[in-house]
UniProtKB/TrEMBL annotation:
It holds the Pfam family CBS. Its cofactor is Mg(2+); Mn(2+). It comes from Skeletonema marinoi. GO terms for molecular function: metal ion binding; protein serine/threonine phosphatase activity. Gene3D superfamilies: CBS-domain, PPM-type phosphatase domain. Keywords: CBS domain, Hydrolase, Magnesium, Manganese, Metal-binding, Protein phosphatase. Residues 99-163, 178-235 form the CBS domain. This is Protein phosphatase. It is an enzyme of class 3 (hydrolase).
Length: 630
């Protein structure tokens, strides 16, 4: 029987309570709400609102500002128009929530996981602000982070995996496990339910603190927004039970799970077969770059040919295949690691070569993997397990810092687990990863289905299956890893640690195309155009016939993978993308993604954005290269 997250926490909370008695909690839009301290400390400190609101009672079925319009409509003999829930402001939702039941959604910074679980269950809340009460009065509790019920389950799952005892798990400090205050995503009271739902869906978060004049007025959840407009009489009583519940409660003893759809079964049938990746890389320097510096434009650069020497690029990358133990710690498996870094060019103004830091960071990633693989071979695989991308970045940064290499760069590092078909990655800044996948429109979900182009006019069913989240302090100001020669203590600094990276995993399917690149690609080539270029590459090499996947499926079923052709041609895809990025960066007649975003942020910019560009293109295949196709 499946247990919900709440049921799991309820059971654990009961055990915790018993123990206690025995022994006596589009790129700038997200950047603007990422980190409470960064947005509020300019003139005030962030604090939690602890006093119940004194607002008048709000009719949840019709907010105050809407009720007057409804009454006016009745007086005028018109049929009152029902307002869309998605258009209601979060301020109204928050008022209704606090009027119905006031709960202080906070937990002290010195609390334990045990305390957080009990608080979550006893107060029936999904998230809590972690507050520091050390040097402040109760009315001015300083917020230092956020922790949610989902975080608590993740803590327990990770700790169980690490072999920790129940007491060790429950006694962990909340402050070590919370989302730091400068990474908390927040909402504003004048934003609508629709807007907040979109933000929560895009970022995969379930709790949204609402910030008003530097104070957290409350925490909004998806449940709060769903329950808005429901009067208490609509949620209880005999009639509602008979209408909504009685016919739905209780499953028969013969209930079973349905078989997955046919297209899912086809995938599950091969899920135990390992997948392999063919990799190709390309690196173009800034077109106006020379050994003497960088030209601001073509006229400044002069009549010479555009730069093509990769050694001039401030980008860096690596690709390494190593053997390490899998997660079980018993079997050796091959792991493919890859990474890109974009050195910050403004260091040139201080006499620092921007290439040094990015190259050292990526080079040390490769050295660490090489050392770990050698250790595995020497010890027979008894002392080495898979290194996560975040850990790899942290180790590499430590070595770079110890070598006193001055500079900074964005960074994106990933690892492909061929057995579990998972791509794990950590990203800091505006480099990133996209996954392209052929999804048949007959089985695609409503959101993935192409509804803008008539089916008869579509060239393919190649879709954008995944786009990694970027991290920006503001427009054209990405977060980065860096070293100035001494530790930076400013909490508002652009420098971040590997632990602050956006870390995630993507399930990969055979036939997927994965693109990891620096911002030189994404600033100049729209993602849909990247997909079009990838499709052309597939068609040129006959991986796809006329944009369809039926021929490819039959070829796979017959045992033909075209792996060797893929391995030979994948560098061409990386080259095509870099070439397109350069072409667009020099075109002043068409606004690039960078220019469009600049104008949205009141910055006048037209055409492309000349920059270094590095692309790591990957094609997922069913056989390792150098095997003869059957």
């Amino acid at each position: 029987m499946m247990a919900t997250r709440r049921e799991l926490l309820l059971k654990l909370a009961a055990k915790v309570s018993n123990n206690q008695r025995a022994t006596a909690a589009i790129a700038t839009g997200l950047a603007a709400r990422n980190g409470l301290i960064q947005r509020s400390s300019r003139s005030f400190s962030t604090a939690a609102q602890v006093d119940p609101p004194t607002a008048t009672i709000v009719n949840k079925a019709a907010p105050a500002d809407l009720a007057s319009s409804l009454d006016q409509a009745k007086l005028e003999g018109e049929t009152p128009k029902r307002s869309r829930v998605s258009d209601v402001t979060i301020q109204e939702v928050l008022k209704a929530k606090h009027t119905a039941r006031w709960v202080e959604p906070v937990i002290p910074h010195n609390a334990t996981v045990r305390d957080a679980i009990v608080t979550c269950i006893s107060q029936n809340i999904s998230g809590m602000m972690v507050v520091d009460r050390t040097d402040t009065m109760k009315r001015q509790q300083k917020c230092v982070g956020l922790i949610t019920s989902r975080d608590l389950l993740r803590i327990m799952a990770a700790s169980i995996k690490d072999g920790k005892s129940a007491e060790e798990i429950l006694n962990q400090s909340v402050i070590q496990q919370m989302t730091p205050i400068n990474q908390v995503i927040y909402g504003r009271p004048d934003e609508t339910i629709g807007m907040c739902r979109a933000i929560m869906a895009k970022l995969g978060i379930k709790c949204l603190p609402i910030l008003v004049d530097g104070r957290v007025e409350g925490i909004i959840t998806a449940r709060d927004m769903s329950e808005f407009y429901y009067d208490p009489k609509d949620l209880g009583g005999k009639k509602n039970y008979l209408t909504d519940v009685s016919e739905r409660v209780g499953l028969s003893e013969n209930t079973s799970m349905a078989e997955p759809p046919i297209f899912v079964r086809q995938h599950l049938a091969s899920k135990h077969d390992p997948l392999f990746i063919n990799v190709g890389t390309a690196e173009y320097p800034h077109p106006f770059k020379s050994h003497d510096g960088v030209g601001a434009n073509r006229r400044d650069f002069g009549p010479d040919d555009l730069a093509t020497d990769p050694s001039l690029s401030e980008d860096a990358h690596f690709v390494s295949t190593v053997e390490m133990l899998d997660e079980s710690g018993t079997n050796m498996q091959k792991l493919l690691y890859m990474g890109v870094a974009d050195g910050v060019g403004s260091w040139r103004e201080y006499g620092v070569d921007p290439r040094d830091f990015s190259r050292m960071l990526m080079g040390e990633c490769q050295n660490i993997l090489r050392d770990a693989s050698s250790e595995c071979s020497a010890t027979g695989g008894t002392a080495c397990t898979m290194i996560s991308p975040a850990e790899l970045l942290a180790r590499s940064y430590k070595r770079t810092k110890e070598a006193n290499v001055i500079g900074s760069s964005t960074a994106c590092v990933g690892v492909f687990d061929s057995v579990h078909h998972q791509l794990h990655f950590s990203n800091i800044g505006d480099s990133g990863i996209i996954v392209l996948r052929h999804i048949d429109s007959d089985v695609a979900s409503a959101l993935q289905r192409n509804r803008t182009t008539p089916r008869t006019e579509r060239k393919s069913d190649l879709r954008i299956a995944f786009v990694s989240q970027q991290q920006l302090k503001s427009f054209n100001h990405p977060y980065q890893m860096g070293w100035t020669g001494e530790e930076v203590v400013d909490k508002n600094s652009s420098f971040k640690q590997a632990s602050d990276s956006c870390t995630s995993s993507v399930h990969i399917l055979r036939g997927d195309i994965i693109i990891m690149a620096t911002d030189g690609l994404f600033d100049n080539v729209d993602i849909d155009d990247i997909a079009s270029i990838a499709l052309k590459w597939e068609q040129d090499n006959e991986f796809i016939d006329n944009g369809g996947i039926d021929t490819r499926r039959r070829r796979w079923e017959s045992g033909s993978s075209l792996t060797d052709i893929s391995a030979q041609c994948i560098p061409t895809l990386a080259e095509m993308l870099c070439q397109k990025a350069r072409e667009n960066s020099l075109d002043n007649t068409v606004d690039s993604p960078f220019a469009l975003l600049a104008k949205e942020n009141d910055i006048m910019w037209s055409g492309g954005m000349p920059d270094d560009c590095t692309v790591v293109a990957m094609h997922v295949v069913g056989k390792p290269a150098n095997l003869n196709d059957v």
